[in-house]
């Protein structure tokens, strides 16, 4: 396929990352993402024929790579719920030009799948773990899963040969903010990197309130008081996390601070939902349907031109304008379980 980088967007940002949500279902009901009381047991998740097939995902991924994407991340919902995921991984890993192929998961199903995912060519895994305390963990996961399962997932990933994991922890004021030091203690001195994520107003159903956000600066000060930290330079401009290393050499931690220190200016990420909608911002309300033209028989060239056209018009910078937009009543965003993190 012809390789022609997508034009920069309206704010001069290139397109280099694609997050692919492979399923909108999840086996957790984290209150900050998919609160149980908002999803009745008969909630209409996508049916199999509504989801992009592996052929369709691969085809779109090739088109995005031809436009300059170098990093792919599989997410969800819970991506490990998608049947035969290793097969999709092996197809994506073979696309020339893909330099980084990663997966974000809550880890519960990882012990069964880690080896197959590694064999299929997955490069990296990010695990979600909000607390080491059994009760707080279950509260953060909406009463599903056990901390022990995530720790087993860490072991399984290590055994399968995934070198350094990223471990995401969303911090909610009054819920798990006091668990941060225990998490740091557990992963300091290991090859794994904890990343603390500010609670974001993604979606609408979580009833986000600014008071529940714990600013990264506050967490950093707490950690620094116990284990002094020093800032590290960013590896790539588009990295979401700001990195800090332990002064004693015991590794690093990251902070993803979309609320207190927005990073829209460096955002090179596009997101594809499981039903084939392209979102140009995590906080967008609507996506651009790629499934319809795909299924209507559009050629690769036509699809590539469509994506390039959408990207060239992109002017999103929600996080930088959060206060102003919320005050103006812009409160509706796509749900996180539809587009992934
Ligand atoms: N199910 C997988 C998992 O748990 O990692 C992948 C999808 S999940 C939506 C991806 C990441 O988004 C998780 O690390 C989760 O904690 C984070 N997340 C979800 N809702 C969030 C919110 N409102 N604010 C910040 N992070 C959030």
Number of strands: 12
- Tell me the strand percentage band: 15-25%
What gross morphology would you assign? globular
- Structural class determined from secondary elements: alpha/beta
Low-confidence stretches: none
- Terminal CA distance: 29 Å
Mean pLDDT level: 95
Bound molecules: S-adenosylmethionine
Radius of gyration: 19 Å
Helicity level, as a percent range? 25-40%
In the sheet with the most strands, the strands line up as 7-8-9-6-5-4-3-2-1-10-11-12
The helix/strand order is: EHEHEHEHHEHEHEEEEEEHHHH
Summarize the main sheet: 12 strands, mixed
How are the secondary structure elements laid out?
Elements: E1 17-21, H1 54-66, E2 71-75, H2 85-93, E3 100-105, H3 110-120, E4 124-128, H4 134-140, H5 147-160, E5 166-171, H6 180-187, E6 193-198, H7 216-226, E7 229-231, E8 242-246, E9 252-256, E10 269-272, E11 277-279, E12 288-289, H8 291-295, H9 300-312, H10 322-327, H11 336-339
Parallel strand pairs: 1-2, 1-10, 2-3, 3-4, 4-5, 5-6, 6-9
Antiparallel strand pairs: 7-8, 8-9, 10-11, 11-12
Helix pairs in contact: 1-2, 1-9, 2-3, 3-5
Bound molecules: S-adenosylmethionine (SAM).
Which features would summarize this protein structure in a list?
alpha/beta, 341 residues, globular, binds S-adenosylmethionine, 12-stranded mixed sheet
Account of the 3D structure:
- This protein has 341 residues and is α/β, with parallel strands linked by helices.
- 30% of the residues lie in helices and 16% in strands.
- It has 11 helices and 12 strands.
- The protein has helices at 54-66, 85-93, 110-120, 134-140, 147-160, 180-187, 216-226, 291-295, 300-312, 322-327, 336-339; strands at 17-21, 71-75, 100-105, 124-128, 166-171, 193-198, 229-231, 242-246, 252-256, 269-272, 277-279, 288-289.
- A 12-stranded mixed β-sheet has the order 7-8-9-6-5-4-3-2-1-10-11-12.
- Helix 6 links the parallel strand 5 and strand 6 (193-198).
- Helix 1 (54-66) packs parallel to helix 2, helix 2 runs parallel beside helix 3 (110-120) and helix 3 (110-120) packs parallel to helix 5.
- The protein is globular, with a radius of gyration of 19 Å.
- The mean pLDDT is 95.
- Bound molecules: S-adenosylmethionine.
- S-adenosylmethionine binds at residues 26, 32-33, 75-76, 78, 104-106, 128, 168, 170, 197, 199-200, 202, 206, 336-337, 340-341.
């Amino acid at each position: 396929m012809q390789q022609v980088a997508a034009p920069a967007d309206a704010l001069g940002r290139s397109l280099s990352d694609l997050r692919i949500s492979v399923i909108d279902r999840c086996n957790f009901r984290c209150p900050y993402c998919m609160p149980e009381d908002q999803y009745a047991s008969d909630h209409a998740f996508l049916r199999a024929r509504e989801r992009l097939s592996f052929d369709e995902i691969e085809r779109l991924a090739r088109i995005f790579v031809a436009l300059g994407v170098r990093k792919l991340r599989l997410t969800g919902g819970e991506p490990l719920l998608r049947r035969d995921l290793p097969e999709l991984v092996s197809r994506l890993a073979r696309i020339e030009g893909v330099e980084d192929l990663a997966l974000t998961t809550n880890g519960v199903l990882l012990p069964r799948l880690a080896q197959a995912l590694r064999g299929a060519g997955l490069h990296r895994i990010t695990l979600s773990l909000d607390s080491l305390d059994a009760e707080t963990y279950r509260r953060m996961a909406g009463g599903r899963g056990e901390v022990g399962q995530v720790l087993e997932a860490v072991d399984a990933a290590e055994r399968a040969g995934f070198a350094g994991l990223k471990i995401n922890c969303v911090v909610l004021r009054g819920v798990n903010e006091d668990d941060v030091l225990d998490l740091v203690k557990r992963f300091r001195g290991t090859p794994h990197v904890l990343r603390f994520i500010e609670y974001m107003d993604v979606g609408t159903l979580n009833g986000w309130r600014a008071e529940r956000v714990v600013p990264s600066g506050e967490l950093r000060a707490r950690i620094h008081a116990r284990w002094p930290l020093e800032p590290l330079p960013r590896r790539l401009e588009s990295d979401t996390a700001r990195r800090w290393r332990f002064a004693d050499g015991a590794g690093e931690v990251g902070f993803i601070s979309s609320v207190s220190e927005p990073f829209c200016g460096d955002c090179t990420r596009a997101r594809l939902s499981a039903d084939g909608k392209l979102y140009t911002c995590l906080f967008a309300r609507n996506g651009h349907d790629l499934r319809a033209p795909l299924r209507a028989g559009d050629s690769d060239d036509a699809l590539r031109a469509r994506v390039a056209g959408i990207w060239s018009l992109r002017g999103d910078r929600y996080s930088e304008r959060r206060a102003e937009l919320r005050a103006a009543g812009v409160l509706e965003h796509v749900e996180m379980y539809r587009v992934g993190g």
